[in-house]
Amino acid sequence: QEQLVESGGGLVQPGESLRLSCAASGFTSNYNSIGWFRQAPGKEREGVSCISGSGGKIFYAESVKGRFTISRDNAKKLVILQMNSLKPEDTAVYYCAADAHYGLGCSLRKSSYEYWGQGTQVTVSS
C-alpha cells in the first residue's frame, strides 16, 4: 500500500523556478530516506538529490548544486525539491523514491530505493 506521488512539474523558461512535491502515503514510518531522480530521453535515470529520514544528511548531484534545494516535512509526509535557475539540461521526468528502511543517511544510487512514484515532467525551454 506504500505510495509516492510527485507533483509540480510543468513548462518553464530558462532561469525560472519550479517546486516539486513528493507526497507519501501508506508508510508505517515517516523517516524513510527519500531520493529525487530524473530521466531524460535516451539517458539513464540519475540521482539528483536525497535526504535522510530526519533531514540531517543531504546530497546533491554536482550538476544541480547551488540551484536545487531538498527539504522535508515529516509531519505532512512531504518532501520538496525547489529548483531555481533552471536550464534546458534539467528537462526530464522527475521521480521520487523511498528506502524500505529507516534512513540514517541517504544515497543517490537507484538500488538504495524500493518504492517509486509515477514521475512528473519538467520541461525547460525558450
Describe it.
The protein is mostly beta strands. It has no helices and eleven strands. It has strands at 3-7, 10-12, 18-25, 32-39, 46-51, 58-60, 68-73, 78-83, 92-102, 115-116, 120-124. Strands 2, 4, 5, 6, 9, 10 and 11 form a seven-stranded mixed sheet that branches. The termini are far apart.
In short:
The protein contains no helices and 11 strands. With 126 residues, it is mainly β.
The value of Rg in angstroms is 13 Å
* Beta-strand residue percentage: over 45%
- Note the run of SSEs as H and E: EEEEEEEEEEE
Assembly form of the protein? single chain
Ranges where pLDDT stays below 50 over 5 or more residues in a row are none
Number of helices: 0
Average pLDDT level: 96
User: Biggest β-sheet, characterized?
Assistant: 7 strands, mixed
Outline, from the CA principal axes?
Answer: globular
Instruction: Work out the number of β strands.
Output: 11
Query: Which class best fits the helix and strand makeup?
Result: mainly beta
